[in-house]
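Progress narrative, Year 2. Work on Tubby C-terminal domain-containing protein from Brassica carinata advanced from sequence curation to structure prediction during this period.
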Amino acid sequence: MPLSRSLLSISSRDHQEGHTPPTEEPDSPMLPPPSSNITGSSSWSAMLPELLSEIIRRVEDTEDHWPHRRDVVTCACVSKKWREITQDIVRSPRNSGNITFPSCLKLPGPREVSNQCLIKRNKRTSTFYLYLALTPSFTDKGKFLLAARRFRTGAYTEYIISLDADDFSQASNAYVGKLRSDFLGTNFTVYDSQPPHNGAKPSHGKASRRFASKQISPQVPAGNFEVGHVSYKFNLLKSRGPRRMITTLHCPSSSSSAGICSDQMPCDVTKMMKKPIRDGSGLTILKNKAPRWHEHLQCWCLNFHGRVTVASVKNFQLVATVDQSQPSGKGDEETVLLQFGKVGDDTFTMDFRQPLSAFQAFAICLASFGTKLACE
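Result:
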């Protein structure tokens, strides 16, 4: 329950018991003024830490919808004790695995476990919806995260990714990024609406432009920023087997963010963030995990641990050959960082972990939709 609603319920209960609530101005804060004793300490600050933790945890655990940032900020601004407890509970997705705010969609996922998501497809409108799974069931929608719609522009295909399931304009504030294919539909480019690092410049060309007019607000980037590629290998001999894919992404290095370079020497993180990526550093290279042929079933098999139930050429698991989130920069080809598979006619699962973000994982999975005759 958000903090504002809990306080309103307390206020309504007092009114039923015969107490007249104080008159509020329309723009007054939701928190009632705390009473102070002789020593000047606030009654809110003196609240038991266990009760404070429970209040803030309920605000942060509202997983079925985006909690209002105002509620969390209100909790952190009451006193120093509230701020410390809020900082201890509300953590980044890398540490907690929770996706609380829309800004978390572009942060790396958890390291030890995967974030389990569902993708719902609407064939009639060519729209795809990403949900954070709240239960093990494949039928529950969960918490809405992102939506994407497929548009055909001449011989090319674009998937516009948005925070709003009904607004897919690149000029909208809900616009997150897009995925664009080449003529054959075998090579895809991932574009971000925001610069991936300080000093990044928008990609050149008509395909990366967000607005038709050049006269726009300087606060809004005029172009998209190229942050990754997804490529499917040709299968000219038509040999049996699933699609083979290679993904290259710009992912932040955990060692760099900690202030430690690859040679274990301290480095200036500010300078590293302001330096544009030109030499390929910071790249994470993923490839699909090779399946095995099952003689009894006469099909290619991968262990999805119960998260995929329908055989499909779209199903895949990605492992890292180069992973900049690791101190050595070398990927673990046994650890699955992203898996995608079919569980119904228009329902798919998407499980991802660090160094991928929800936005990056969703863009990679979108590339799997569509027929690729040259790769199958």
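The radius of gyration is 24 Å. Confidence is low (pLDDT under 50) at residues 1-31, 35-40, 212-217, 253-281.
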